Amino acid sequence: MRGMRKGTTAVAFFLCAVVPGFAQLPQFKPGFNLFSKDQDVQLGKESAGQIEKQVEVVNNKELTDYIANIGKKLAAQPQADKYPYTFKVVNDKSINAFALPGGPAFVHTGLIAAADNEAQIAGVLAHEITHVALRHGTNQVSKANLIQLPAMLASQKLGGGILGQLGQLGIGLGANSLLLKFSRTAETQADLMGAQIAAQAGYDPVEMARFFEKLEAGGGQRGPQFLSDHPNPGNRMKAIQDMIKQMPQRNYAGDSGQLARMKTLVAGIPAPKKTMAQAQAQEQAQGQQQGGTATTPAGLSLPNSRPSGRMQQFQGKEFRISYPENWQTAPSQDNSSVTIAPPSGAQQGQNGLSVGYGTIVAFYKPQNANVSLWQATDELVSQLRGGDPSMRAGRDMPVETRVGGKSAIVTSLYANSIFQGQTELDRLVTVAHPSGIMYIVFISPDSERQYVDQAFNQMLRSVQFSF
Ligand SMILES: [Zn+2]
């Protein structure tokens, strides 16, 4: 039976995609991301492992199968992008559900108890699947950590856990985590693509909107955790209904008719020993303790960081650059970006892996593909400033130049240096790339210009691109 239903769904989707009479449904693509898809999956596995230590995963096979079967139908839709999804039930009375990068999804027993019908549960799961497929969690982490992440993700080659590394940047799974709390744009996408996924799997997508409305209406003082992690992007109900109008009419036959039975099962589960909220509070307290001890004095040294006169070459995926022999390279897995820094010029500390002396070559994809190099540079600068509140405009106006035979813009920025009491000068060079911009950041304390200017100029002149 299930096979047949799946078959008809696939045909319906196929028709809607090719028959010109139907309005073209909006399609969504993942945004800028420094993680690879495999790294999303690895991060999700590590995170799920940690969460399952903190909460009580329900062991009732009937209930778990029920949620997993709904999840499977949704995950089979093309928009879900074939991530290794898993679906588990958490014993927690609060109304919540969440998904981690790469696929692990969790539904609280409180949400099952609160749902009026199966389509509401399916709608929430389809919404969560969209966050996974569009990689919203790692997109947010990428945008907030443009400087630190390329080197950090590169060090993954050495086998450390990604979650542990993100912890160094102050990113965990606690309340307000960048991995679990989404922007309004991400919410709009999750609502609209979630509605498509739910409908294709045989569930009336209007029920997702009804469920959100119900949560808002009955929210109480702070509202359920679900709404604080998935804020209403505005006119949620109307946007979903407008989306439904564009979709082909269907018979929604997905309901298994078992929800009442599941509610009885949920009601019979004893209260958990520990809830997610308690676990998060505990994690946060631990994080503060760790933060306190993580400020071990590293071997930061200005004289040791200064570039030697001799240069060697780094070959990246689409660029080549010379760099001082006494600096080290930390390329990304596919060599598309690299951090080049002296060991005494970078620090793993309270605020994550910070480069105070060195050079970063990386790629940035603007939100809108059709922007000029100037506009894309502006967007990158505001992203960088979002990741470092101390960052501000430098004393030089941005200027156009040529690098590696291509037009480039040089923007100078100031920030607080990891070298105490020093002002950091970041010279940002941006070059147009067919699918975004390549950027090079030359980083040093402002007071070190006499030692670095020659080396930085030499590095910039050595740059060659192959795109
Ligand atoms: Zn959401």
**C-alpha termini separation:** 51 Å
Domain module tally: 2
**Average predicted local confidence, pLDDT:** 85
Q: What's the helical proportion of residues? A: 40-55%
Share in β-strands: 15-25%
Number of helices: 17
Q: What spatial form do the alpha-carbon principal axes imply?
A: elongated
Bound molecules: zinc ion
Global Rg? 25 Å
Largest sheet: 8 strands, antiparallel
Per DSSP E runs of 2 or more residues, the count of β-strands stands at 16
Characterization of the model:
The chain has two domains: 2-284, no CATH class; 302-465, Mog1/PsbP, alpha/beta/alpha sandwich (Protein Transport Mog1p, Chain A, 3-Layer(aba) Sandwich). β4 (311-315) and β5 (319-324) form a beta hairpin. Mean pLDDT is 85; it is low at 1-22 and 288-298. The chain is elongated and about 75 Å long. The protein has 17 helices and 16 strands. The relative contact order is 0.11. The chain has helices at 2-18, 37-54, 61-75, 109-114, 118-133, 136-144, 149-154, 162-168, 184-200, 206-217, 225-229, 236-246, 259-267, 276-293, 302-305, 373-387, 449-462, and strands spanning 86-90, 97-99, 104-108, 311-315, 319-324, 328-331, 338-341, 346-349, 352-355, 358-364, 392-393, 399-403, 406-416, 423-433, 436-445, 464-465. It is 43% helix and 19% strand. Strands 6, 7, 10, 11, 12, 13, 14 and 15 form an eight-stranded antiparallel sheet that branches. Strands 1-3-2 form a three-stranded mixed sheet, sandwiched between helices. Strands 4-5-16 form a three-stranded antiparallel sheet. By secondary structure, it is an alpha+beta fold. The longest helix is centred in the first third of the chain and has 18 residues, at 37-54. Zinc ion (ZN) is lined by residues 127, 131, 182, 187, 190, 230.
